[in-house]
Amino acid sequence: MLADLAPAFGAAQGNADSKARPGKLFPDESLDFTTYGRMNADIDVQLDAVDLGSAFRQKISPLKLHLTLIKHKLSLADLEASTAQGSLSGALSIDAHDASNPDLSPPPAPDWDIQLAVRDIRLEQWLKVQQKPSQPGKGRAADTPPAYITGQLTGKAKLQGRGRSTAALLKSLNGQLALIVRKGEISHLIVEAAGLDIAQAVGVLIKGDQPLPMQCAAMGWQAKQGVLTPDAALIDTPVTTVTVSGDINLGQEQLNLKLQASPKNFSPFTVRSPILVTGPFVDPKVSLSPGPIAARVAGGVLLALINPFAAIVPFLDPGSKAEAADEGCQQTLQQLKARKH
Questions:
Q1: Are residues 89 and 28 in the same domain?
Q2: 294, CA 20 to 30 Å: which among 3, 55, 197, 332?
Q3: Do 166 and 191 share a domain, yes or no?
């Protein structure tokens, strides 16, 4: 039964009827709820390991959940899993039951309810996001480069949608998503490139990339009919604060994002032009927005983030005041508030 769900989440089917979607990332294979309507199930599932694919360094190990199936209502509850020194938990329900016509065949497109949380997952151990190793020189071994981003990822998603496949579901998603990276570091070169400080970036290339501590990396997103829009999204380092605006259209699989850097140190080489990330998921383009942005405009963007930014931590961990008080993002929030006065 779990194998039958795989095509909806991107796994290849073993038959010849599986259709490729040129230029698309997400599959459009439909779940067979007609078959599910003929059976009931109540199963405790425990898997030793789940391989998430080539983009991940570590498997999920172990994974536990409780599966029930009653008349087109599939529930995966009490999900507990571990990976990269962190944990995943939550529940998923897929309901294709039509109370007014329970014998309808095929059943209507199912309603999805997704409640998932991740906690303290080490990004550098979970994702294969690392710079290329340097070439070995005469008499010395190649240096092991730092990861582009490290830290403990905590996140939470409360999403609802409708559809027979992943593509249809994503096109209809509504809800809320938030992420925070604690005790993290990010590539110095990426930060300088985002700020378009040519002198600093060249210096980093010459001396070698050293990671910068992230005082705060937090993003809160709203989903409405398959379009993700950030309420607040920023990365704060000792040299630059980078904000993200725009949207991600999951239905059309299109990016329309703007990254705006606000450097904390003056440099005559800082261009201050926003970076645009646009185009399809399978072939995104990175370009510069025409014309530099004034410093006062960048400052206004940061001030507009204060209230939505302050709501991210309570959504992730309501009632955890002690942990929130220690969060580096609280310091960033206070700095943003200070700019208002």
A1: yes
A2: 332
A3: no
Q: What is the rounded CA–CA span in Å between residue 100 and residue 172?
A: 23
Mean per-residue pLDDT over the chain, rounded: 77
Do 166 and 255 have their domain in common?
A: no
pLDDT tens by residue, 24-77 = 888 888 877 777 777 889 999 999 998 887 778 889 999 999 999 998 899 999
Distances (CA, A) of 93 to 69, 75, 118, 143: 10, 4, 18, 47
Both 160 and 202 in one domain: the answer is no
User: In Å, how far are 65, 272, 293, 303 from 296, measured between CA atoms?
Assistant: 51, 11, 8, 11
What gap in Å lies between CA 302 and CA 333, rounded to an integer?
A: 10
Residue 93 domain boundaries:
1-11+21-127+149-172
Q: Give Cβ neighbours of residue 11 (< 8 Å, ≥ 6 apart).
A: none
Count Cα neighbours of 207 within 13 Å in the Cβ-side half-sphere.
Answer: 11
115 and 215 housed in the same domain: no
Residues 328 and 190 in one domain: yes
pLDDT of 140-199, one tens digit each? 444 555 677 889 999 999 999 999 988 999 999 999 999 999 888 887 656 555 554 444
Taking each helix axis as running N to C, give the angle between helix 198-207 and helix 188-195, from 0 to 180 degrees, rounded to the nearest 10. 160
Strand partners, 278: 256, 285
pLDDT band at 90 (very low <50, low <70, confident <90, very high): very high
- pTM of the full structure: 0.78
Task: Name the domain boundary from 141, 172, 203.
Answer: 172
C-alpha to C-alpha distance for 135 and 42, rounded to whole angstroms: 55
